[in-house]
Amino acid sequence: MRIPSSRHWAAKIEIGASFGAHVDVDCLPVGVGLLDNEFRFRRFNRAYADYLTANTRYSAGEAIGLSYFGCIDGARAKAEPLMRHVLASGTPYELRREELAIRVGDRTVVTYWDGQISPVIERSGHVSGILLVCTEITELRSEQPRQDCRAPLTFKEEQVAALICEGLTSKEIADRLCLTKAAIDARRNVIRKKLGISGSQANLYGCLKQLN
C-alpha cells in the first residue's frame, strides 16, 4: 500500500498568483503554511495552526504577520539556512525526520518533522515566498520500537487506512465503503492496536504514512 506523504500533498498544491487556488488546504491532513520573502507568516491551514498553538506561545491569529523565527523560538539556527537556500535556488528541500529544537518558555522541546519546504514561484518566475508542507512525527518516533513488531493489516483494514490517508473522516469513509460509522471507528481502533499506538495520542495518519 502506498501512503501519501507530506511531499505528496506538496506536489498537489499549485503555486501561482493565489495561494491554494486549486486545493482546499484546510481539508488536507498535513500542515500547510505560506511565508513571504522576509519569512513572515501570510497564511496557514488548520493543521498548521494546531502546530503553532501546541509549540508556541502564540495563537493562530497572533502569528499572522510575525516572523517564522520570532514565532517559533529556537528554530532560526536550523531552519533559516534551509529556507534561504530554497529562496536562492528556487528548488524545494525535503524534510525527512528533521529534528527541530523549539524553546517553549524556560524549556526546550525537541520535535521531529517530515515534509517539504518549497519556493513560491509567480508566473513571472519571481520567487515570492516559501511554502511549508509538513507533518509532526515526534510522537511517532517514540512509538517506533512497537511499530516494528506490528501485525499486518487485513485487506479491509488497508482499505480504511488508505482512505484515512486521503484525509477522509470516519463518516466519509463509511459512505465510500457502504458501511456504518461505528464499523469504521471499530476498524480504526483495530488498526491503532496493530500499529502499537492504542491508548496513545500518536496521530494515526502520521503512523500510517510510515508504511509506504
From TrEMBL:
Residues 150-208 form the HTH luxR-type domain. GO terms for molecular function: DNA binding. Pfam families: GerE, PAS_4. It comes from Microbaculum marinum. InterPro entries: PAS-like_dom_sf, PAS_4, Sig_transdc_resp-reg_C-effctor, Tscrpt_reg_LuxR_C, WH-like_DNA-bd_sf. SUPFAM superfamilies: C-terminal effector domain of the bipartite response regulators, PYP-like sensor domain (PAS domain). GO terms for biological process: regulation of DNA-templated transcription. This is PAS domain-containing protein.
